[in-house]
Amino acid sequence: MKKNNSQTVLLAGATGYLGSFITKALVQGQYKIKLIARSPERLESLESETVKIIKAEVTKPKSLKGICEGVTTVISTVGITRQKDGLTYMDVDYQANLNLLNEAKKAGVKKFIYVSAINGDKYRHLKIFEAKEKFVSELKASGIHYTIVRPNGFFSDMKDFLQMAKSGRVYLFGDGNQKFNPIAGEDLANFIYELLDTNVKEVSVGGPDILSLNDISKMALQTLNKPVKITRLPDGFRKFIIWSLRKFTNVKTYGPIEFFLTLMAKDNIAPKYGKHRLINFYQQNS
């Protein structure tokens, strides 16, 4: 995996699901790395001559002052699915990334890689994508060379099906034939690593297997040695749930639900990449 590692890479989100895999890839590639962490003790075992751990919070611009000095490339996986700690999607997915981008511009960073999500530009009406795509617009207008990565669902998101399967039944909306190809965190990290020396501006990516919701439900149940019992609810019920949550709850409640229910209502198929398969992930986590 060794590449042109004369670069110094700053990674924001290093302690997260995807960030931990990107960190591993960068360390193996012998890059000079700066890792931002709110709790640096979680990364202290990685610190070395080429790996610097920096205590900072992307939501607090003062803590980022000068953080990009000497950096050639910034990678940001900063983003939330569920709002917590009093922080909104706009606080994190938009403003925190903008804080980082502002520092990158001041320091003359050459490239900024941002991880969004598949078809985010088509779903800007969703609260989570509204924030992500607002930042994408800022990044495109920044003058910095950029790459926007749009991955399909993560394997970790597919745990919800495994959790449902434990009860002996999986519930779906519609006929269950909607297809997508979720991707493992390790595969996505390697994909992002390979983008470091490219001029790709925007790219979607998914895992090696295209699966329907029926396929995934069956896989989850069979992994747990359960009979295949799938209840398919009318799609109109899904729409009613989204409408009701938007009307009677706040964005903290409905944001992640409308995100998943909307994206899983249609096919979302990205170019295939990687070697890890969902069946193996389920077997390891069952």
From TrEMBL:
Residues 13-198 form the NAD(P)-binding domain. It comes from the Bacteria. Coiled coil: none annotated. This is NAD-dependent dehydratase. Gene3D superfamilies: NAD(P)-binding Rossmann-like Domain.
